[in-house]
Amino acid sequence: MADPRPCVILGGGVAAYGAAEALRAAGYDGPVTLVSAEPVVPYDRPALSKAFLQGQKTAEEILLKPPEHYQRLGIELRLGQLATAVDLDRRELVLEPGERLPFAVLLIATGAEPVRLRLPGFDVPGVRYLRSLADAQALREDLSRAERVLVVGCGFIGAEVAASARTLGKQVTVVDPLPVPLAGPLGEEVGGILAEVHRRHGVELRLGQKVAELRGHRSVEEAVLESGERIACDLVVVGVGVRPAVALFQGSGLQIENGILVDEHCATGVPGVYAAGDVANWWHPAIGRRLRVEHFDNAAQQGAAAARAIAGNPQPYAPVPYFWSDQYDLNLQYAGYPGPWDQVVLRGDKAAPSVTAFYLRQGVVEAVVTINRPRELRPGRRLVEARARVDPAVLADPSTDLRALTQPARQAE
Amino acid sequence: MATPEGYVAVKRYDEIPEGGIVPFEVDDDERILVKLEGNVYALSGICTHEYAELAEGDLEDHVIYCPLHGSGFDLETGRVTALPATQPLPVYDVQIVDGVVYVSREPRQG
């Protein structure tokens, strides 16, 4: 039976893509419109900092599906259209320059926006952020002419951009306020392994340091650190984190707290309004706390979960979050819940590196990270999913077959 | 026993361990055989997202997962079950004759 309720998906990232696919797969046959501020259909955003930046893939090659695919699904695309206001009572969006777009069901998949640095000199040309395809195109263009690149922030985006720039033969300096990069999400031991990989590839690391200002006439020429050190550079890439893109919904009646609050079915407190992806702060029923995850896999899956709820088949969304990061020829994968943890157990060879790290809290495996040991990722993930308690000595022993642990692992209380 | 037309002999059925993923090549094309619950499946050996050898991947619930980025493909149909891949994995027909696994040269259509 035809569902007459028009559904609007607001956003053009992978959460929107996951929702579009899953709405139709779940049998929703009402009108669906995808509204995105970006002028392209959803694409493989993780490729921007890696294969796309390094020139191995074109913009067309990173599209998740070609535009015709949405036509086949019967989904209307409204690309390059900015939503400027929303009225949840009247159930309409206002699109630039003033068109009103009614909806019965709204899925908010607006993602996140890079945090902008408001320091002296950061408004000169030659300072780039990386979030959208347009950002990546501009950065790739700048990178082709640059010789000395300064990366501000050694999170995943910063580290990947640094690796791509080195791979392209640029001189690269990375500045990060933490003494060990990525110590927040990965801990100091694993962060230290990554720092060493970057050093070995010739990246200059300035850790425990902050940029005070940028200087340059027509474009950036040097950075001055708080320590007083001056670093010559002709391109600056800032990767200091993102914030959920909620501006449109301030005062709309939705609960906003580190993203848009939704329940385990991706539903907000307003009937018919859902959120998924980087923008959604959801209740994770398996671990009994709220999570907001800024990674591709979550966006894809949560978009699909929201779609199933919209189609009348809600299932609790309780994934083990997953992401990867490729830097040089290093492959890192993470499956698990964000910290805190009280113990990190490593196995393998830190120098190679070929390492699997387990993050435990009160004896329960909360997360697993593999560096160049992909075969241990999914068995490790199964331990996380099972809320397993495993003797740290057994985990640390490289002769332990993780697959064999998966079945008999005892459940956490 | 003659090889079925359009097929190539790959391996003896008994030589493939249960739950095993065995790489092989047909005309320089990398493929894999998977044995699960006694059934044998033949699929392309390279992920459709980025270059990665699925022989190094993992099996869970009739899905093969790419070792690098977690793309999932249904063993039976090659359908994508987990992104980042969005293109299905080519699958090949399998015949077992006199204990030998034969795989079609051409992928199964649609």
Automatic annotation (TrEMBL), chain A:
Its cofactor is FAD. The keyword Flavoprotein applies. Signal peptide: none annotated. Residues 7-303 form the FAD/NAD(P)-binding domain. It holds the Pfam family Pyr_redox_2. It comes from Thermorudis peleae. Keywords: FAD, Flavoprotein, Oxidoreductase. Residues 322-405 form the Reductase C-terminal domain. One of its GO terms (cellular component) is cytoplasm. GO terms for molecular function: oxidoreductase activity, acting on NAD(P)H. It comes from the Bacteria. This is Oxidoreductase.
Automatic annotation (TrEMBL), chain B:
The keyword Iron applies. InterPro entries: Rieske_2Fe-2S, Rieske_2Fe-2S_sf. Keywords: 2Fe-2S, Iron, Iron-sulfur, Metal-binding. One of its GO terms (molecular function) is 2 iron, 2 sulfur cluster binding. It comes from the Bacteria. The keyword Ribosomal protein does not apply. Gene3D superfamilies: Rieske [2Fe-2S] iron-sulphur domain (2.102.10.10). Residues 8-103 form the Rieske domain. This is Non-heme iron oxygenase ferredoxin subunit. It comes from Thermorudis peleae.
